[in-house]
Amino acid sequence: MEKIPILRMGRFLLVTIQVDMHDQLAMQLQNDLTDRIVADRAHGVLIDISSLEVVDSFIGRMISNIAAMARVLDAQTVVVGMQPAVAITLVELGLSLEGVRTALNVDKGMELLREQVGAAGRI
Amino acid sequence: MPPDRVVQPIRSSQDVVRVRQIARERAIAQGFSLVDQTKLVTAASELARNTLEYGGGGEVTVELLNDSVRRGVRLTFTDTGPGIADINLALKDGFTTGNGLGLGLSGARRLSNEFSIESKLGEGTRVAITRWR
Asked: pTM for the whole thing?
């Protein structure tokens, strides 16, 4: 079965969503990320959605779930690369993605995570 | 140019993906801007998932609309599922009878120019959305 790869970048994990996600894949990703946050003692998760031309409430819920699980495990989540048409549509859809920071790209996302982690007094 | 009217069954998550593709193709064919394409496809995705998850599966009829002044796309989702007990409640943001965010119906309505819904308990539901260029 297909799996979304999770890359480790220092104390952060990077996930790139490129395919159309169905229920099983979404659940698998949430579980895998949770395991990896613990196993790698990750301080943050970067979710790259720059390939997604459509983000509906299903994907929105998956992202919110990931952020909530990460938070419980003392890790931050940053979503990067949201396409402008997607951003406009999400607002109209009413999806708020509360508790999820966003950044323009992976570089800026990592900067954001480093700031937050630094502020929390960790290296 | 894609056909004026096509019916796509919605029986699996692959079908939901196909619905998005068809909606995208039609929106492009009618000359929608990228943002309008995205709105239509996102609304279609919400309603297709609803048809699958709450309606027990069904189908969508996708039509190209061309009257003398404007061009549009209409998607009509139908299922013969349990139906919706309280439509007004179902249209409220955040209301869900499942694990969702409760934004599917209300969101699809906001993302569309026209929206209609009929439902009968024990018989099924029909939701139609239209977006004009």
From this structure: 0.92
